Amino acid sequence: MSAFERVERVDTKAVKGRGDKALECQICVEETKNLAATEIGKQAVAGDKQGTQPKWTLQFLWTLKKEGVRENTAKMYWYILTNLESHGANLLDPESVKEVIAEHNWDESTKALAVSAYSKYLEVFGGTWRKPKYKRERKVPFLPTEKELDCLINAAHKKLATYLRLLKETGMRANEAWQLKWIDIDIERSIITLNQTEKHGTPRNFRVSSALIGMLNALPKKSDRVFNGSLIGFCKGFRRFRSRIANKMQNPRLTKIHFHTYRHWFATMEYHRTKDILHVKERLGHKSVNTTEIYIHLIDFEDDDFYSATASTVEEARKLAESGWEKWDTLNGVHIYRKRK
């Protein structure tokens, strides 16, 4: 039996050696239950029952879960592999996979991810291959204006508007915000605590606006989580909404805004405001400052991107600070403040 023929079976070799068929069935049931506890697992199990999922799906995802691979990473691998199959790749034949990756209309970075996904597939099922070489290209991500981000927030329905506002004010990753629980929100002090981090990020607190707290508090409290349902479906709905608003506003730039775009914008604005990369690192929850540097895109902000104001007394300075103005410079004893338009 080849390594790939074992795909259709949960690893029962040791169990069969003891002749315990009941135990073998129990293991299959328990492993499927454990996998189904994840969002991606529920889809896989449902699809498997309907005969729409590849036979390798459950074994692959369950192995990744046992290895401690993050659900989002497993999800990405799964999507890429099924995409390769839908374009004619035979996962049992590495040369077939190479051809499909080479011919696919993907950029170098996505092809590199496809190579990583298939390498993981081979690792799970015992295969080997000579990996094609694709380099991940580092590009400066699209950075919209605050007005464009707010355009989507203001046009969205209540749940989506709240979610986007949360991303904008905290810079959370999409799944971090999606997993937020009501217990994590201190309504009285306008503080949100993030404990369920992604990518081994550090837990952190955010002081947010009273407007965001009001939006969160207006959402129905159907469970312990603030946002319910499938993030995948929610993302698809956002893309449709985004295209509709882009057409309505005659602004194709809006179609380039993703959930992660709000994180890029948050990081860039925090760095521009503080010029402190360590502060931004803490706000983003990164373990290494090298990761933070990827998110920092220095932009030459023109002078006319700001309003300006001056304060010569403590009271004037206090009022400007409370209204969201930031101190920029001091000249002849006069404090100069500015605020983005």
Would you kindly provide a written description of the structure presented here, covering whatever features stand out?
- With 341 residues, the protein is mostly helical.
- It has 3 domains: 4-125, no CATH class; 146-295, hpI Integrase, Chain A; 303-340, no CATH class.
- It is built from 16 helices and 6 strands.
- The chain has a 3-stranded antiparallel sheet with strand order 1-2-3, with no helix packed on it. Strands 4-6-5 form a 3-stranded antiparallel sheet, covered by helices on one side.
- α9 packs parallel to α13 (259-274).
- The longest helix is centred in the C-terminal third of the chain and has 19 residues, at 231-249.
- It is elongated.
- The relative contact order is 0.07.
Structural class: mainly alpha
Low-confidence stretches: 1-33
Query: Counting H and I runs of at least 4 residues, what is the number of helices?
Result: 16
Q: Looking at the structure, what is the overall shape?
A: elongated
What is the number of domains? Answer: 3
Q: Kindly report how far apart the N and C termini lie.
A: 67 Å
How many strands? Answer: 6
> Level of helix content?
40-55%
Rounded to an integer in angstroms, the radius of gyration calculated over CA atoms is 25 Å
Reported by name, the CATH topology of the largest domain is hpI Integrase, Chain A
On the 0-100 scale, what is the average pLDDT?
A: 81
Amount of beta strand:
5-15%
**Largest sheet: number of strands, sense, barrel closure:** 3 strands, antiparallel
Q: What is the N-to-C order of secondary-structure elements (H for helix, E for strand)? A: HHHHHHHHHHEEEHHHHHEHEE
* Annotated CATH architecture of the largest domain: Orthogonal Bundle
Strand order of the largest sheet: 1-2-3
CATH superfamily of the largest domain: Intergrase catalytic core
| CATH class value of the largest domain | Mainly Alpha
